[in-house]
Structures are given as C-alpha cells and as structure tokens.
Input
Amino acid sequence: MPKALITGAAGFIGYHLSKRLLADGYEVIGFDAMTDYYEVALKERRQQMLLQNSAFKAVNDRLEADGVLMDLITDEKPDVIVHLAAQAGVRYSIDNPKSYVEANLIGTFNLLEAVRANPCSHLLMASTSSVYGANTEMPYAETHKADSQMSFYAATKKANEAMGHSYAHLYDLPITMFRFFTVYGPWGRPDMALFKFTKAILNGDAIDVYNHGDMRRDFTYIDDLVAGIAMLIDAAPVRPAPGEAVPEGDSLSPVAPFRVVNIGNSEPVQLMAFIEAIEAALGQEAKKNFMDMQPGDVPATWADGTLLNTLTGYGPQTSVPDGVANFVAWYRDYYGV
Output
C-alpha cells in the first residue's frame, strides 16, 4: 500500500484529495493545523469523516513549528507528499501578512528541508493562479512570465515556486507545482464567493459583487481538480539530460526535475453568469450590492490546460451549473436550510 502525506488534509481540497487517494488504495497521513481562519467545526467534520477509514491517520500541528515535519517525515517515510497547507486568501493577506510568512514561507521551507533529508518519489505543492498577477495575455500558460503578483498571498506562493525549484535543482528532488483556479464545490471554504453568496441569498442579505460584476473566473470543480492532482502523482518530472531540449509548451525546468502545471476548467465564466447559476440552484434571486474592485484582485483568470492534458490525458468534466447545484445541495443538507 503506497503511503501519501497530505498537508492541509482537513481543508477543502485536502479533504477531497485524501478521499480520492484512500479510494485509490493509498495509506494517507493527513497533516493539518486546524487554524481558525474559518470555522474549525467544518475542518473537524471533514477530518472525522476521513478517520472513519482505517488507512487514514491524522496529525494536528503547525507547518512552521520547529522539527515537526522533519520528525514526521523521518518516521513515516511517505512515498508521495502533496503540500496543500497554507494561509489562503487574497484579501486576508492585506490585513494579516505575517501569517502568510509563517505558514507559506517558513512552513514550506520546513517541508523542503524534511524532504531533502528524506527524499520521496514525488513532491507536489500547491500554487495558485494568483501568481499570474497583472498578466493580460490569456489563457494563462505555465511558460508565461509571472513576475507581477498583486497580493502578498500571491507573492508567497510565487516564492514557494522559486524555493521548490532551487531544492529540485540542488538535491534532485522531483517537484511539481500546480496552480489552482478558483476551486468550488461541496465542503468548500466559507470565505469563497460561492459559499458567501449562497449563505447571503438564503438569509435574504445582499451579496457584494466586485468590479460591478465585470469579472471572469476559471471556476474549477473540486472533483476535476482532485482528479488532476491524483493523475499528476504518476507524472513526476525528470531532469533533462545536458543539451536535451524541453518540449515546446512544457514548463519543465532545463536544470531541475521541476515543473509547473495549471489545473483549471479552461473556460472562464462571467461573475454574473456564476451568480445566475447560484440563483437557479436556489430558486431565489440575489439582492446585489455592486462594488469597486478590491485591492489585490484581478479582473480575469483563464487557465491553459494543454500541459495537464499532455501529461495525464485528463481534462475537466463538470459544468458550472452542475457543480454549483452540487454545492447548493450539500449546503442545504449540511446546514439544514
């Protein structure tokens, strides 16, 4: 039975990925700090459901705590590590940037050091579409330059990519960074738009619509994202031989077993169309509070999914109306509304 360590396993994506890998026959060690960035009860419920599987083991601690990851990885020696744990959120990074330094920079450094001392077959680490920042060329391709991050959150994730590349080069560690695009679905995060909109509409409250609705997002359903990650596990990058050319469109480093891969729906959706899908699923029209763009935000995201498809043969399967309807059904059931 292969063993996987998933950091952030009680989080939205970590929970779904843990379920997927357990179903695929993995033993899963789920590491999570159970922070109060959003309601801890939701994380506890996810973790409790995972613990119903005897192949799942929970470890609750912080990435940035000295020695914790080193001891865990030395003891457990996982075959694969998927690093999802991070302080998330674009707007929160303006109010509390230090938490991003601690979790995203120091925590990721601790993980890289632990993997350097205990190499695994493949380390996969979460990045974000936010690293594309002020880029206007779309769809975003992994080979595009991404040096104009517009939030501190995005800056820490771009730093994680650079840190990962240096460790891959220096210590021959196979590392894949995957860039997420606006993930949504059942058991989602309460700070994300779909969750907030659904809650507000059901309560009869107005929803805040930024940039007066003139925004597009590459909304990615959770099952599609997790399928992409699971398939990438078997696509570990290999350092090119000296003088070997990197295939066109591949983000593989010429000097390291390191690659960046987009995982998105590859079809940007207007924010107002997304809201209409929520209204349709709820059978209720939203009251709308149109607002200016928020600091650190971008007007559009759009993933080029060619590389993911080339590496795994996989592409997104879930339409936005279907994905939103699945979330609304879960929300009504979980909260009894």
In short: The first helix runs from residue 12 to 23.
